[in-house]
Write a structure and sequence with these properties.
9 strands; single chain; alpha/beta; two-stranded antiparallel ribbon
């Protein structure tokens, strides 16, 4: 759920409650399986979030709660007040956009990939048994990186090589790269195309080797110390 009206974010009690009621009406349903707070609100009062969560949970309108695009300390602030488990954080991650990974691999280096943009959120999710959901899993600089040979020639060559080995598609291999994460990520497909959905689903049957995983990472333009 996106709490954005005009040019602001709003995680106040009233806005959360009103938003959920509006969603339930539009979906013609009695409850939501899960509600995510989409992006942090700089003016958030976690006590109000806690009250909204309590009322939504106790009324049966929402079963589970999570966040998106939150750093660990922002989640910890909410957890200080919220009684329900915050079970998901939703972040952007793809082969080209892998700062959540590079910031750990390039620790103690003066490189672009070493910049901490997430607060080690992948490790935080593992420590706290939170599910990491990734959005835009096939995003590159100019839309999808798959078959973008002008921008990502090495990556597409390696994807094609592995697709041939596993008798599958480049999309499936790229999805398998994400699923190989020990944190147990979930992909947000972002498509209604049946073939593309089938390709993504087939990634669950592919377990890339460590060498294959790192070769894709390097072919996407990242470095290893």
């Amino acid at each position: 759920m996106r709490y954005r009206t005009g040019k602001m974010y709003d995680l106040s009690y009233k806005y959360i409650i009103d938003s959920v009621d509006g969603i339930l009406r539009r979906l013609n349903t009695e409850y939501l399986d899960i509600l995510l707070l989409h992006r942090p609100d700089a003016l958030v009062e976690p006590e109000e979030v806690a009250k909204a969560f309590d009322d939504l949970h106790n009324s049966g309108k929402v079963r589970y709660f999570g966040v998106s695009n939150h750093r660990p300390l922002q989640i910890e602030l909410l957890k200080k007040y919220v009684s329900q488990e915050i079970c998901i954080d939703q972040m952007q991650l793809s082969l080209p956009f892998s700062s959540m990974i590079s910031e750990g691999l390039e620790a103690n280096m003066q490189t672009e990939g070493a910049v901490d943009r997430s607060g080690s959120i992948l490790d935080y999710c593992r420590v706290n048994d939170m599910t990491m959901q990734v959005w835009s899993p096939f995003q590159g600089k100019n839309g999808t990186f798959i078959d973008d040979n002008d921008t990502y020639p090495d990556l597409n060559w390696r994807l094609g090589e592995l697709a041939a080995k596993y008798d599958t598609s480049k999309t499936a291999v790229a999805a398998a790269w994400l699923l190989r994460q020990p944190s147990g990520v979930q992909l947000i497909a972002g498509t209604m195309n049946k073939q593309r959905l089938s390709d993504i689903a087939s990634a669950a049957d592919i377990t890339l080797t460590r060498d294959e995983w790192y070769s894709l990472y390097l072919s996407a333009g990242h470095i290893l110390p």
